[in-house]
Amino acid sequence: MTGRGVVAIAVLTAWGAGIAAYAQHELARTPRERMAEIAARVAPGATYFAVERSGAHVGFASSTIDTVPGGLQVTDYLVADLAAEGGSRRTTAQSTVHLSRGLGLRDFTIVYGTASQRLRASGHTMGDTLLEYVVSTTEDGRAALTAGDSTPAGDTTRVRLTGPLLLPTLVPLVVALGEPPEVGQRHTMETFDPMTMSVRSLALTIRAESLFVVVDSAAFDTHSRRWLGAHADTVRGFRIVADDSATFDSWVDPLGRVITVHGPARLSLRRTAFEVAFENWRAAGKQRPAAGRSTNDEERTIETAVSAGVLGDAGHLDMLQLRIRGVDVSRLAIDGGGQRAHGDTITIAAFPAKRLRPTTPALPLSRAMQEQYARELRSEPLLEVAHPAIAALARRLRARDVLVDLVTQRLVTWVHDSLAKEPAIALPSAVATLRSRTGDSNEHAQLFVALARAAGIPARTVSGVVQVGGRFYYHAWAEVLLQEWVGADPTTGQFPVDASHVRLLVGGLGAHTELTRLVGRLDLTVLSQTSRRARRASTR
Predict the structure, then answer these.
(1) Are 457 and 392 in contact (CB under 8 A)?
(2) Alpha carbons 31 and 164: distance in angstroms, whole number
(3) C-alpha dihedral sign at 378, 382, 383, 389
(4) Residues pairing with 456 in the sheet
(5) Distance between CA atoms of residues 124 and 161, nearest Å
(6) 255 near 233, Cβ under 8 Å?
(7) Contact of 306 with 425, CB cutoff 8 Å
(8) Residue pLDDT, tens place only, 252-265
(9) Which residue, 270, 283, 271, 288, is CA-closest to 220?
């Protein structure tokens, strides 16, 4: 063998050893070490966004990353005039999150809502094993207080963790900085969403790659009286989409900074210069008409029956069959109870009232049933089952009755008769709703479920749409457990509910938020229906 051959073999051997050592190092790295390396590449700074809806500039948003002792601070802010419950209201959301050097969640504070009512959530982690958070409501800028207390009312909740958590706003950083992004890459990570107070495994795919022109500075144009882009950069972007196509859909640059975000109902965020994002929106606000009832077709699709003023016409269907398109039906809770799904076709039959008594259990439930349905009996964020005011009212309404159907009917009637039916935009809290005695279907359902659980009845909130007058409106109601889940609607006063109620999702705050993302894409076609009114008329 020549000397040159020996050298070549030596070089190849060294190269192979180096590759093996690198591979061993990569495989041996823990998720914490990988996150720490990503955190070291995070660049502090601020980005600004124009909030747009169907092409119209409706608000401003910003995201700022700062270094602080021991980690990072991420501050996100959004203010926008958003369509809600058939009108337009000024909505703000602000979150401050502290992260460890490994991007692990340490603590957070988030405030969301309108000037009249806001939700405040705060929490902190205890190592990698426990998350503790409390949710409270704020009314007219003041913290809602319990009677005789000086602290904000709210339930403290603890969640057991299996490892470090990520905030959804940090997902772009982790995907872009973890390894060079390429189309087709898949990522799965555990996230905690402060808006829904839920921990979930988020599966993502890099779907596409493209180039974007991003405005990074602006100059004021005296003729149009607007700020115009003065300088722009061309940046490469990667489209990151969640498997459910509704939770996350963003274009991100190689540094993990968001370029655009596609939200529900054609709401989007577009990165641009501060003046273009904020000053143009503020100036345009002086010419905008006063907020009022929306006339946009798409905004009407997310209108509720309360805001439309059609509740008096609800509740007369024995059977409804429809086809649902536009969304992934496999992710919807469209099968069960009075609903039967076959592919994209749903058949709904009203639960006969005469079947209530033979199937109703007695209170208190057996220990086995309490254990089996512990989830549907417990307190949750904004569902303050153990609050003294909720517990006392539940005891008074239950009185001495032991049959679940009788107690349920009394609770439905009380909520229906005691609460004013008015559009709302803040996230619903049972205690806040009990104080204000007003709200939309979300508030009514939230208070009813809290009272039912406090009375010992397994109950859950559900959301979907209700058909009234040939149109579908967003709606929320509840289900209580007899021998099966039976619908109860305190907004319309129905128990059991009729077949006009199309359940799409089961759950509280998380389901409410997910349905908001989905409802603008729903395509519903009625195939057949049977009306109680028509049946009674035919027998006369």
Answers:
(1) no
(2) 9
(3) positive
(4) none
(5) 12
(6) no
(7) no
(8) 999 889 999 987 66
(9) 283
Are 167 and 108 in contact by the 8 Å Cβ rule? The answer is yes
Q: What is the pLDDT of residues 135-190, one digit of tens each?
A: 666 654 444 333 333 334 456 677 777 767 777 878 888 888 888 899 999 988 88
pLDDT in tens, 224-244: 889 998 899 999 999 999 886
Nearest C-alpha neighbor of 94 from the set 77, 74, 114? 77
- Pairing state of beta strands 258-262 and 267-272? antiparallel
The residue with tokens 């009674």 is: 536
The span from the CA of 146 to the CA of 136, in Å, is 10
Helix (H, G, I), strand (E, B) or coil at 114: coil
Separation of CA 179 from chain center? 29
Two tokens, residue 58 = 């409706």
Structure tokens that stand for 310 in this block = 């059609």
- Half-sphere exposure (CA, 13 Å, Cβ side) for 260? 19
Contact 250, 239 (CB under 8 A): yes
Locate tokens 């990698």: which residue?
128
Give the total residue count for the chain.
Answer: 540
Compute the distance between CA of residue 349 and CA of residue 498 in angstroms, rounded to an integer.
Answer: 8
Place of tokens 């209108």: 303
Q: Which two tokens stand for residue 232?
A: 């722009």
Handedness of CA 493, 499, 502, 506 (dihedral sign): positive
Cβ within 8 Å of residue 196, ≥6 positions away: 509, 510, 513, 514
Residue type, 423: P
* CA gap 47, 270 in Å, rounded: 10
Residue pair 114/91 in contact (Cβ under 8 Å)? The answer is yes
Q: What is the 3-state secondary structure (H, E, C) of 284-348?
A: HHCCCCCCCCCCCHHHHHCCEHHHHCCHHHCCCEEEEEEEEECCCHHHCCCCECCEEEECCEEEE
Alpha-helix residue ranges (DSSP H) falling in 146-239:
171-178
Element (H, E) at 94: strand 87-100
- Of 209, 155, 229, 192, nearest to 378 by C-alpha is 155
Among 253, 227, 255, 228, smallest CA distance to 240 is for 253
Question: Is 90 exceeded by the pLDDT of residue 408?
Answer: yes
Kindly report whether the global pTM for this prediction surpasses the value 0.70. Answer: no
Give the helix/strand (H/E) hosting 135: strand 130-139
Amino acid found at 269: L
- Would you say the C-alpha torsion 21, 27, 28, 31 has a positive or negative sign? positive
Residue 260 DSSP class: E
With the C-alpha atoms ordered 327, 331, 333, 335, is the resulting torsion angle positive or negative? positive
Contact status, residue 380 vs residue 121, Cβ threshold 8 Å: no
